[in-house]
């Protein structure tokens, strides 16, 4: 009786740009599932876990981190050429990350304030998402990413189907877990209504407002949520701070933060213009 030929393993690379490595560690945290995954995938590039290096090509390339230096800008273009599928993982790769807060201020000024010899430090004027330089085939959000969503992505790639990842707000995750709304019950500001789910409503479960680390959900009405924060008596600076966090450089959150004066410490003249397609005035 003829046997079905074994499907060849997909070549996978995991690389980082400007990041903390937390999203890469999510892969290692799968622990017992790593051996079954190894039957489907051949990890040929993963500096976080192995000294074995590969220049590609890759069937799947997972990229963590934002683009913050000239070398990274060049490297990501070359990596894109080597990858059949390029998947960005985490808030840094998808939205610029917490380091993108520097985009609101004068690059040369803060570099001179931090480093004794700023001329030795090669960095771009802005820390930007990977998608601003190359085409991205899929994104996994979070800070760090969800192990469940990572597993779903890898399985879907191995069998050739679209990943089944919910497109909904954190509020729905709260309801499924019977979490009492912190905004309604305690008046705590929360980005849950406009943030993509995936964390299991982690912060609201512990009585904290959502920080928005999974980024804005599709068609998020962040302008309306900002108005609600302002109506409860919060000053402009606090409203801007709420949106200028882990994913504050995303177009949706950035436009609201800019309308309320930008994040703490922003140089007034350096507040960026509205992103293309954004509202003329998020406060109207």
Task: Give a written overview of the molecule.
This protein is α/β, with parallel strands linked by helices. The protein folds into 2 domains: 10-159, 3-Layer(aba) Sandwich (Rossmann fold), CATH 3.40.50; 170-270, no CATH class. It contains 12 helices and 5 strands. The chain has helices at 22-28, 34-40, 70-82, 91-95, 107-114, 147-159, 170-176, 182-186, 202-205, 222-231, 236-243, 251-259, and strands spanning 10-16, 41-45, 58-64, 83-89, 138-140. It has a 5-stranded parallel sheet. The relative contact order is 0.12. The model is unreliable at 275-281 (pLDDT under 50).
Largest sheet: 5 strands, parallel
Task: Report the span from N to C terminus.
Answer: 72 Å
> SS-based structural class?
alpha/beta
Number of strands: 5
The CATH topology of the largest domain corresponds to Rossmann fold
Q: What is the H/E order?
A: EHHEEHEHHEHHHHHHH
Gyration radius (Cα, Å) is 20 Å
Looking at CATH, the homologous superfamily of the largest domain is NADH:ubiquinone oxidoreductase-like, 20kDa subunit
Provide the domain count: 2
- Helical stretch tally: 12
